[in-house]
Description:
Blueprint lengths: L12 E3 L12 H9 L2 E5 L7 E4 L2 H8 L4 E2 L29 H7 L7 H5 L2 H18 L3 E2 H6 L1 H11 L6 H12 L5 H21 L8 H10 L5 H15 L1 H15 L1 H9 L4 H11 L10 E3 L3 E3 L2 E3 L4 E4 L1 H4 L34 H18 L4 E2 L21 E3 L1
Amino acid sequence: MSEETITETAPPVRDWPALDLAGTDFDPVLAELMREGPVTRIRLPNGEGWAWLVTRYDDVRMVTNDPRFSREAVLDRQVTRLAPHFIPARGAVGFLDPPDHTRLRRSVAQAFTARGVERIRERSRAMLDELVDEMLAAGPPADLVEAVLGPFPIAVICELMGVPAADRHTMHTWTQLILSSAHGADVSEQAKNEMGAYFSDLVGLREGSSGEDVTSLLGAAVGRGEITLEEAVGLAVLIQIGGEAVTNNSGQMFHLLLTRPELAEQLRARPELRPQAIDELLRYIPHRNAVGLSRIALEDVEIKGHRIRAGDAIYVSYLAANRDPDVFPDPDRIDFSRSPNPHVAFGFGPHYCVGGMLAKLESELLVDALLDRVPGLRLGVPPEQVPFKKGALIRGPEALPVTW
Protein backbone atom coordinates (compact mmCIF):
# COMPACT_ATOMS: atom_id res chain seq x y z
CA MET A 1 0.00 0.00 0.00
CA SER A 2 1.27 3.47 -0.77
CA GLU A 3 1.93 6.42 1.48
CA GLU A 4 -1.06 8.20 -0.10
CA THR A 5 -3.35 5.92 1.92
CA ILE A 6 -2.31 7.41 5.26
CA THR A 7 -3.09 10.70 6.95
CA GLU A 8 -0.54 13.30 8.05
CA THR A 9 -1.00 12.14 11.64
CA ALA A 10 -0.58 8.40 10.94
CA PRO A 11 1.50 6.63 13.60
CA PRO A 12 4.91 5.24 12.64
CA VAL A 13 5.15 1.69 11.29
CA ARG A 14 6.57 -0.60 14.00
CA ASP A 15 8.33 -3.88 13.21
CA TRP A 16 6.82 -6.79 15.13
CA PRO A 17 9.27 -9.72 15.08
CA ALA A 18 8.23 -13.33 15.66
CA LEU A 19 9.22 -13.82 19.30
CA ASP A 20 9.47 -17.23 20.97
CA LEU A 21 8.02 -16.32 24.37
CA ALA A 22 8.10 -18.59 27.40
CA GLY A 23 5.42 -19.17 29.98
CA THR A 24 2.52 -16.75 30.00
CA ASP A 25 4.74 -13.69 29.48
CA PHE A 26 2.82 -10.98 27.67
CA ASP A 27 4.40 -9.98 24.35
CA PRO A 28 6.55 -6.90 25.10
CA VAL A 29 6.08 -5.57 21.54
CA LEU A 30 2.29 -5.74 21.89
CA ALA A 31 2.50 -4.04 25.29
CA GLU A 32 4.49 -1.22 23.71
CA LEU A 33 2.01 -0.89 20.84
CA MET A 34 -0.86 -0.68 23.35
CA ARG A 35 0.92 2.15 25.14
CA GLU A 36 1.46 4.04 21.88
CA GLY A 37 -2.24 4.43 21.24
CA PRO A 38 -5.50 2.73 20.31
CA VAL A 39 -4.59 2.63 16.59
CA THR A 40 -1.03 1.87 15.46
CA ARG A 41 0.69 0.47 12.38
CA ILE A 42 2.74 -2.71 12.18
CA ARG A 43 5.02 -4.67 9.88
CA LEU A 44 5.20 -8.42 10.55
CA PRO A 45 8.06 -10.75 9.47
CA ASN A 46 6.38 -12.03 6.28
CA GLY A 47 4.17 -10.77 3.49
CA GLU A 48 4.35 -7.21 2.16
CA GLY A 49 3.82 -3.65 3.35
CA TRP A 50 2.27 -2.65 6.66
CA ALA A 51 -1.13 -2.93 8.33
CA TRP A 52 -3.19 -1.06 10.90
CA LEU A 53 -3.57 -2.58 14.36
CA VAL A 54 -6.37 -1.88 16.84
CA THR A 55 -5.96 -2.96 20.45
CA ARG A 56 -8.81 -1.39 22.45
CA TYR A 57 -11.72 -3.64 23.36
CA ASP A 58 -14.48 -1.54 21.74
CA ASP A 59 -12.49 -1.02 18.53
CA VAL A 60 -11.65 -4.73 18.27
CA ARG A 61 -15.33 -5.64 18.57
CA MET A 62 -16.32 -2.98 16.05
CA VAL A 63 -13.81 -4.07 13.38
CA THR A 64 -14.59 -7.79 13.74
CA ASN A 65 -18.35 -7.20 13.50
CA ASP A 66 -18.41 -4.53 10.76
CA PRO A 67 -19.09 -5.65 7.15
CA ARG A 68 -16.90 -2.77 5.92
CA PHE A 69 -13.90 -4.91 6.93
CA SER A 70 -13.59 -8.02 4.75
CA ARG A 71 -11.76 -11.30 5.19
CA GLU A 72 -12.49 -12.40 1.64
CA ALA A 73 -10.64 -9.39 0.18
CA VAL A 74 -7.40 -10.70 1.74
CA LEU A 75 -7.26 -13.56 -0.77
CA ASP A 76 -5.72 -11.51 -3.56
CA ARG A 77 -3.23 -9.66 -1.37
CA GLN A 78 0.18 -10.34 0.14
CA VAL A 79 -0.64 -8.63 3.44
CA THR A 80 2.11 -8.35 6.06
CA ARG A 81 1.72 -11.43 8.28
CA LEU A 82 3.35 -13.63 10.91
CA ALA A 83 3.07 -16.99 9.10
CA PRO A 84 5.89 -17.64 6.65
CA HIS A 85 3.89 -19.97 4.39
CA PHE A 86 0.37 -18.65 4.71
CA ILE A 87 -1.67 -19.86 1.71
CA PRO A 88 -5.35 -18.91 2.10
CA ALA A 89 -7.72 -21.34 0.43
CA ARG A 90 -10.42 -19.73 -1.67
CA GLY A 91 -13.80 -20.70 -0.25
CA ALA A 92 -12.40 -21.58 3.20
CA VAL A 93 -14.72 -20.41 5.96
CA GLY A 94 -12.01 -18.23 7.52
CA PHE A 95 -11.88 -16.19 4.32
CA LEU A 96 -15.59 -15.85 3.63
CA ASP A 97 -17.83 -12.90 4.42
CA PRO A 98 -21.56 -13.15 5.12
CA PRO A 99 -23.84 -14.42 3.62
CA ASP A 100 -21.59 -17.26 2.35
CA HIS A 101 -19.84 -17.45 5.72
CA THR A 102 -23.22 -17.72 7.49
CA ARG A 103 -24.42 -20.44 5.09
CA LEU A 104 -21.32 -22.54 5.64
CA ARG A 105 -21.26 -22.26 9.43
CA ARG A 106 -24.97 -23.10 9.60
CA SER A 107 -24.20 -26.58 8.25
CA VAL A 108 -22.33 -27.58 11.45
CA ALA A 109 -23.94 -25.26 14.01
CA GLN A 110 -25.96 -28.10 15.56
CA ALA A 111 -22.79 -29.86 16.75
CA PHE A 112 -21.55 -26.79 18.62
CA THR A 113 -24.73 -25.69 20.41
CA ALA A 114 -25.03 -26.26 24.16
CA ARG A 115 -26.99 -29.44 23.40
CA GLY A 116 -24.48 -30.61 20.82
CA VAL A 117 -21.55 -30.13 23.19
CA GLU A 118 -23.42 -31.70 26.14
CA ARG A 119 -24.00 -34.75 23.92
CA ILE A 120 -20.32 -35.67 24.25
CA ARG A 121 -19.73 -34.55 27.87
CA GLU A 122 -19.91 -38.00 29.46
CA ARG A 123 -17.92 -39.68 26.70
CA SER A 124 -15.29 -36.94 27.03
CA ARG A 125 -15.16 -37.35 30.80
CA ALA A 126 -14.71 -41.12 30.40
CA MET A 127 -11.85 -40.67 27.91
CA LEU A 128 -10.19 -38.18 30.27
CA ASP A 129 -10.54 -40.52 33.26
CA GLU A 130 -8.80 -43.27 31.26
CA LEU A 131 -5.88 -40.95 30.51
CA VAL A 132 -5.57 -39.87 34.17
CA ASP A 133 -5.81 -43.53 35.28
CA GLU A 134 -2.93 -44.42 32.96
CA MET A 135 -0.82 -41.51 34.21
CA LEU A 136 -1.41 -42.42 37.87
CA ALA A 137 -0.74 -46.11 37.22
CA ALA A 138 2.59 -45.27 35.57
CA GLY A 139 3.49 -43.15 38.58
CA PRO A 140 5.45 -39.92 38.82
CA PRO A 141 7.17 -38.15 37.25
CA ALA A 142 5.14 -37.52 34.09
CA ASP A 143 4.85 -35.10 31.22
CA LEU A 144 1.33 -33.68 31.62
CA VAL A 145 1.22 -32.62 27.96
CA GLU A 146 2.13 -36.08 26.70
CA ALA A 147 -0.02 -37.97 29.22
CA VAL A 148 -3.21 -35.87 29.29
CA LEU A 149 -3.24 -32.38 27.78
CA GLY A 150 -2.19 -33.58 24.33
CA PRO A 151 -4.25 -36.74 23.77
CA PHE A 152 -7.44 -35.47 25.45
CA PRO A 153 -8.37 -32.64 23.03
CA ILE A 154 -7.46 -34.87 20.08
CA ALA A 155 -9.80 -37.59 21.37
CA VAL A 156 -12.61 -35.08 21.97
CA ILE A 157 -12.39 -33.27 18.62
CA CYS A 158 -12.16 -36.60 16.78
CA GLU A 159 -15.24 -37.79 18.69
CA LEU A 160 -17.13 -34.64 17.72
CA MET A 161 -15.92 -34.84 14.11
CA GLY A 162 -16.77 -38.52 13.74
CA VAL A 163 -13.14 -39.50 13.06
CA PRO A 164 -12.49 -43.14 14.08
CA ALA A 165 -10.20 -43.64 17.08
CA ALA A 166 -7.69 -45.52 14.91
CA ASP A 167 -7.04 -42.35 12.88
CA ARG A 168 -6.47 -39.95 15.80
CA HIS A 169 -2.68 -40.18 15.76
CA THR A 170 -2.53 -39.41 12.04
CA MET A 171 -4.83 -36.40 12.56
CA HIS A 172 -2.56 -35.13 15.32
CA THR A 173 0.56 -35.48 13.15
CA TRP A 174 -1.04 -33.59 10.27
CA THR A 175 -2.20 -30.81 12.60
CA GLN A 176 1.24 -30.32 14.12
CA LEU A 177 2.84 -30.08 10.67
CA ILE A 178 0.22 -27.56 9.52
CA LEU A 179 0.58 -25.35 12.61
CA SER A 180 4.38 -25.31 12.77
CA SER A 181 6.62 -23.09 10.69
CA ALA A 182 9.68 -25.21 11.51
CA HIS A 183 9.27 -27.75 8.69
CA GLY A 184 8.79 -25.37 5.76
CA ALA A 185 5.93 -24.54 3.42
CA ASP A 186 6.01 -27.74 1.36
CA VAL A 187 5.66 -30.07 4.36
CA SER A 188 2.87 -27.94 5.83
CA GLU A 189 0.98 -27.79 2.53
CA GLN A 190 1.35 -31.54 1.99
CA ALA A 191 -0.08 -32.26 5.46
CA LYS A 192 -3.00 -29.93 4.74
CA ASN A 193 -3.66 -31.67 1.41
CA GLU A 194 -3.52 -35.12 3.02
CA MET A 195 -5.94 -34.09 5.76
CA GLY A 196 -8.22 -32.58 3.10
CA ALA A 197 -8.19 -35.81 1.07
CA TYR A 198 -9.04 -37.79 4.22
CA PHE A 199 -12.04 -35.57 5.02
CA SER A 200 -13.14 -35.60 1.38
CA ASP A 201 -13.48 -39.38 1.61
CA LEU A 202 -15.12 -39.32 5.05
CA VAL A 203 -17.65 -36.59 4.22
CA GLY A 204 -18.39 -38.25 0.88
CA LEU A 205 -19.20 -41.52 2.65
CA ARG A 206 -21.66 -39.71 4.93
CA GLU A 207 -23.79 -37.92 2.37
CA GLY A 208 -27.40 -38.39 3.41
CA SER A 209 -26.35 -39.38 6.95
CA SER A 210 -28.55 -38.53 9.94
CA GLY A 211 -25.64 -38.64 12.40
CA GLU A 212 -24.90 -35.78 14.82
CA ASP A 213 -21.12 -35.66 14.39
CA VAL A 214 -19.58 -32.92 12.26
CA THR A 215 -18.65 -35.02 9.21
CA SER A 216 -22.17 -36.49 9.15
CA LEU A 217 -23.70 -33.00 9.32
CA LEU A 218 -21.39 -31.87 6.51
CA GLY A 219 -22.19 -34.94 4.44
CA ALA A 220 -25.93 -34.30 4.88
CA ALA A 221 -25.49 -30.63 3.88
CA VAL A 222 -23.54 -31.65 0.77
CA GLY A 223 -26.23 -34.20 -0.07
CA ARG A 224 -28.92 -31.50 0.17
CA GLY A 225 -26.90 -29.22 -2.10
CA GLU A 226 -26.50 -26.52 0.59
CA ILE A 227 -22.71 -26.57 0.43
CA THR A 228 -20.14 -28.06 -1.92
CA LEU A 229 -17.85 -30.95 -1.01
CA GLU A 230 -14.88 -28.56 -1.32
CA GLU A 231 -16.48 -26.17 1.19
CA ALA A 232 -17.26 -29.06 3.55
CA VAL A 233 -13.66 -30.28 3.44
CA GLY A 234 -12.25 -26.79 4.09
CA LEU A 235 -14.51 -26.40 7.12
CA ALA A 236 -13.68 -29.88 8.46
CA VAL A 237 -9.94 -29.18 8.24
CA LEU A 238 -10.34 -25.84 10.04
CA ILE A 239 -12.41 -27.34 12.88
CA GLN A 240 -10.05 -30.31 13.30
CA ILE A 241 -7.00 -28.04 13.54
CA GLY A 242 -8.79 -25.62 15.86
CA GLY A 243 -9.78 -28.47 18.15
CA GLU A 244 -6.15 -29.08 19.04
CA ALA A 245 -5.62 -25.47 20.13
CA VAL A 246 -7.07 -26.62 23.47
CA THR A 247 -3.80 -28.48 24.11
CA ASN A 248 -1.90 -25.20 24.10
CA ASN A 249 -4.55 -23.24 26.02
CA SER A 250 -4.78 -25.92 28.72
CA GLY A 251 -0.99 -26.20 28.78
CA GLN A 252 -0.71 -22.49 29.57
CA MET A 253 -3.61 -22.78 32.02
CA PHE A 254 -1.94 -25.54 34.01
CA HIS A 255 1.45 -23.87 33.76
CA LEU A 256 -0.18 -20.91 35.52
CA LEU A 257 -1.91 -23.05 38.15
CA LEU A 258 1.29 -24.98 38.87
CA THR A 259 3.59 -21.95 39.02
CA ARG A 260 1.08 -20.08 41.20
CA PRO A 261 -0.07 -22.89 43.50
CA GLU A 262 -2.22 -20.49 45.53
CA LEU A 263 -4.55 -20.29 42.50
CA ALA A 264 -4.85 -24.09 42.30
CA GLU A 265 -5.52 -24.29 46.05
CA GLN A 266 -8.27 -21.70 45.69
CA LEU A 267 -9.97 -23.86 43.08
CA ARG A 268 -9.56 -27.02 45.15
CA ALA A 269 -11.10 -25.32 48.17
CA ARG A 270 -13.94 -23.69 46.23
CA PRO A 271 -15.01 -25.89 43.29
CA GLU A 272 -17.98 -23.59 42.62
CA LEU A 273 -15.49 -20.95 41.44
CA ARG A 274 -14.12 -23.10 38.64
CA PRO A 275 -16.34 -22.08 35.68
CA GLN A 276 -15.74 -18.40 36.49
CA ALA A 277 -12.03 -19.03 37.05
CA ILE A 278 -11.69 -20.72 33.66
CA ASP A 279 -13.16 -17.63 31.99
CA GLU A 280 -10.61 -15.48 33.83
CA LEU A 281 -7.73 -17.78 32.81
CA LEU A 282 -8.94 -17.71 29.19
CA ARG A 283 -8.96 -13.90 29.34
CA TYR A 284 -5.47 -13.80 30.80
CA ILE A 285 -3.44 -16.40 28.90
CA PRO A 286 -1.68 -15.16 25.73
CA HIS A 287 -2.82 -18.04 23.55
CA ARG A 288 -1.12 -17.01 20.31
CA ASN A 289 1.91 -15.19 18.94
CA ALA A 290 1.36 -11.70 17.46
CA VAL A 291 -1.96 -11.52 15.57
CA GLY A 292 -4.14 -13.88 13.52
CA LEU A 293 -5.86 -13.15 10.22
CA SER A 294 -6.16 -9.67 8.76
CA ARG A 295 -9.09 -7.89 7.15
CA ILE A 296 -9.26 -5.35 4.31
CA ALA A 297 -11.23 -2.10 4.57
CA LEU A 298 -13.81 -1.98 1.76
CA GLU A 299 -14.37 1.77 2.24
CA ASP A 300 -12.89 4.61 4.26
CA VAL A 301 -13.57 4.19 7.98
CA GLU A 302 -12.48 6.44 10.84
CA ILE A 303 -11.26 4.83 14.06
CA LYS A 304 -10.14 7.00 16.97
CA GLY A 305 -9.32 9.92 14.69
CA HIS A 306 -7.41 7.83 12.12
CA ARG A 307 -8.76 7.36 8.62
CA ILE A 308 -8.48 3.75 7.53
CA ARG A 309 -8.58 3.99 3.73
CA ALA A 310 -10.40 1.58 1.42
CA GLY A 311 -7.91 -1.15 0.55
CA ASP A 312 -5.90 -0.84 3.77
CA ALA A 313 -5.15 -4.01 5.75
CA ILE A 314 -6.11 -4.06 9.42
CA TYR A 315 -5.51 -6.46 12.31
CA VAL A 316 -7.18 -6.73 15.70
CA SER A 317 -5.51 -8.06 18.85
CA TYR A 318 -7.85 -10.07 21.06
CA LEU A 319 -5.00 -10.46 23.56
CA ALA A 320 -4.75 -6.69 23.89
CA ALA A 321 -8.54 -6.27 24.07
CA ASN A 322 -8.58 -8.72 27.00
CA ARG A 323 -6.15 -6.42 28.86
CA ASP A 324 -8.07 -3.18 28.19
CA PRO A 325 -8.18 -1.44 31.60
CA ASP A 326 -11.41 0.38 30.69
CA VAL A 327 -13.17 -3.00 30.52
CA PHE A 328 -11.07 -5.16 32.86
CA PRO A 329 -9.88 -3.18 35.91
CA ASP A 330 -6.33 -4.16 36.96
CA PRO A 331 -6.10 -6.30 33.80
CA ASP A 332 -2.69 -7.86 34.52
CA ARG A 333 -4.01 -9.48 37.71
CA ILE A 334 -5.74 -12.87 37.73
CA ASP A 335 -9.00 -12.35 39.62
CA PHE A 336 -11.28 -15.39 39.86
CA SER A 337 -14.08 -13.17 41.21
CA ARG A 338 -14.00 -10.90 38.15
CA SER A 339 -17.56 -10.19 37.08
CA PRO A 340 -18.67 -9.42 34.49
CA ASN A 341 -15.93 -10.90 32.34
CA PRO A 342 -16.84 -10.26 28.68
CA HIS A 343 -13.49 -11.53 27.33
CA VAL A 344 -12.93 -12.07 23.63
CA ALA A 345 -10.61 -15.09 23.92
CA PHE A 346 -12.74 -16.86 21.30
CA GLY A 347 -13.02 -13.83 19.05
CA PHE A 348 -16.08 -11.75 18.19
CA GLY A 349 -18.50 -11.17 15.34
CA PRO A 350 -19.24 -13.60 12.48
CA HIS A 351 -15.84 -15.31 12.83
CA TYR A 352 -16.30 -16.02 16.57
CA CYS A 353 -14.71 -19.42 17.25
CA VAL A 354 -17.32 -22.07 16.51
CA GLY A 355 -15.76 -24.36 19.13
CA GLY A 356 -15.76 -21.89 22.04
CA MET A 357 -18.30 -23.85 24.09
CA LEU A 358 -16.47 -27.10 23.43
CA ALA A 359 -13.14 -25.59 24.55
CA LYS A 360 -14.73 -24.40 27.81
CA LEU A 361 -16.21 -27.85 28.42
CA GLU A 362 -12.79 -29.46 27.94
CA SER A 363 -11.13 -26.92 30.24
CA GLU A 364 -13.74 -27.55 32.96
CA LEU A 365 -13.29 -31.33 32.72
CA LEU A 366 -9.49 -31.02 32.84
CA VAL A 367 -9.51 -28.72 35.88
CA ASP A 368 -11.95 -31.00 37.73
CA ALA A 369 -10.06 -34.21 36.93
CA LEU A 370 -6.53 -33.01 37.62
CA LEU A 371 -7.22 -30.91 40.72
CA ASP A 372 -9.52 -33.50 42.35
CA ARG A 373 -7.84 -36.75 41.32
CA VAL A 374 -4.21 -35.63 41.68
CA PRO A 375 -4.29 -33.40 44.78
CA GLY A 376 -0.49 -33.31 45.12
CA LEU A 377 0.09 -32.31 41.49
CA ARG A 378 3.05 -29.94 41.16
CA LEU A 379 5.78 -28.98 38.71
CA GLY A 380 8.59 -31.51 38.51
CA VAL A 381 11.20 -28.94 37.44
CA PRO A 382 11.85 -25.27 38.19
CA PRO A 383 9.41 -23.04 36.21
CA GLU A 384 12.18 -21.65 34.00
CA GLN A 385 13.02 -25.19 32.82
CA VAL A 386 9.57 -25.82 31.31
CA PRO A 387 10.16 -25.89 27.51
CA PHE A 388 7.78 -23.83 25.36
CA LYS A 389 7.01 -24.26 21.67
CA LYS A 390 9.24 -22.42 19.21
CA GLY A 391 8.27 -21.34 15.72
CA ALA A 392 4.57 -21.98 16.39
CA LEU A 393 1.64 -19.66 15.75
CA ILE A 394 -0.18 -20.93 18.85
CA ARG A 395 1.67 -20.62 22.16
CA GLY A 396 1.97 -23.37 24.72
CA PRO A 397 4.41 -25.65 26.57
CA GLU A 398 6.19 -28.33 24.59
CA ALA A 399 6.16 -30.43 27.74
CA LEU A 400 4.93 -29.90 31.29
CA PRO A 401 7.01 -32.07 33.68
CA VAL A 402 4.97 -32.84 36.81
CA THR A 403 5.11 -35.00 39.91
CA TRP A 404 2.74 -35.68 42.81
